[in-house]
Amino acid sequence: MNKTLDWIGELEGLLPAGRVVTAEAEVDRLSKDFYWYSPVLKRQLQDKRGDAAVQAKSVEEVRQVIRFAYCNGIPLTLRGAGTGNYGQCIPLQGGILLDLGGMDRVLEITSEGVAICEAGARLGVIENTARKAGWELRCYPSTYQKASVGGFLAGGSGGIGSITHGVLRDNGTVRHIRLMTMEAEPREVMLEGKDVLKALHAWGTTGVMLEVGLALAPRVDWGQMAVSFGGMEACVNHAEAVALDGAWQKRLVTCFEWPIPQWFTPLQKWVVPGQALAFFEVADSQLEAFGKAAEAAGGKVVYRAPHQEPRRGAQLSDYTWNHTTLWALKGDPTLTYLQCGFEPGQFREQMRMLKERFRDEFLLHLEFLKVEGVVRPGALPVVRFTTEERLQEMIDYCGTIGVGVANPHINHLEGSGRWREDDAKRVAKREYDPQGLLNPGKMSQYTPLKTEPIPA
Ligand SMILES: Cc1cc2nc3c(=O)[nH]c(=O)nc-3n(C[C@H](O)[C@H](O)[C@H](O)COP(=O)(O)OP(=O)(O)OC[C@H]3O[C@@H](n4cnc5c(N)ncnc54)[C@H](O)[C@@H]3O)c2cc1C
Q1: CA of 115 to the centre of ligand 1 (A)
Q2: Gap between the Cα atoms of 31 and 76, Å rounded
Q3: Does the predicted model carry a pTM greater than 0.90?
């Protein structure tokens, strides 16, 4: 049925006026994210789009859309804010693009420090609301101003704060997810405990998140500091020492090899050409002592900003995590990136081998984080793109020296490096989206149940 698009008028009739978007440019915009970070995905995905978009405002509207899509066998792809960086919300088989950005209320900050929010709530709004109540997000992506909490849970992994509180799947940070199933009579399912893994980083293939509960951390006033080092080795040594030292209260520990800092255009007034650079967020009360420790380790403090509430102006975190790639791409469009996980005890040797083999094609950008309680150097290296074969050679080489790659140049879950061995997501899909209509193609090994569509 979706081939002829006769269904669009019928869908419009089911929903309040203005909810269904059909203007081609707008549907195209809503169908896209930052997939163009990858030259491989740019080629594969640039012509993919939904047939129509729905901008839902209530749970009942979501239910109507799901029921309609299910009964007519129409693919349904979910969108938060479209800041995903590997085409996660791009519909591969057309159909309906369901934009949840209008369901964006922060419902409650509980006295135990849990934020209960609609899935479309912006992380920046959640952070500001939590801070007013004495709490803050445990971790958030560098896109927090725009990104939705549902999109972060379904598409992201961690970010600023992960050095102390771990990634999203750790420490019970995601307390609950209320999910709507893709069935003729959609059910609301409450996922708690380990069950949240059925929907975390599942790219919206296992159900529609309606509401989430996020455990928060007590609020801290954060100062920012940038420290320049003569070489990457000294920079990494100091960053690692900070990352491992529990006495420093911190939210961000980042290192960049030169020439990455040259692409941070607004920061050039203090970036030192030729030097490695480290960015930190540490407790404001520790900022002075932190600066002294950095200088004692051979660094030069080139930028320092005390805590400000509300935050004003650019933040150092706007240049970290995957924002680094964005600045680099603005400066040189032939660049792209990888997402690597080094082994804590071996990362110096692994970095040395990568640099020896690929030299200036592979530029180091490290983000220290905690995963399952262990501090690790994660990396989002900026790499030069010449051919797909050369990019694959880099990925393969990482594998041979024990560096894990969550491949951001692949558009299905199984190939993206975060597929879970316990198969929780495929089992959940069978349970919550038996016909495989949610974001079809993204869980590439799922075979839909052979049931006839139910007449509307
Ligand atoms: C510059 C830049 C920096 C970034 N930095 C980080 C970072 O620091 N850490 C990090 O983890 N990621 C990062 N990302 C990736 C991305 O920003 C995050 O994953 C972000 O949280 C996505 O949120 P979103 O609302 O934009 O999601 P979208 O891009 O809209 O969607 C992401 C995925 O979630 C699904 N989805 C959306 N809403 C729902 C819902 N309600 N229910 C079920 N599925 C849903 C979509 O179908 C899609 O598969 C970055 C990306 C960019 C471009």
Answers
A1: 19
A2: 11
A3: yes
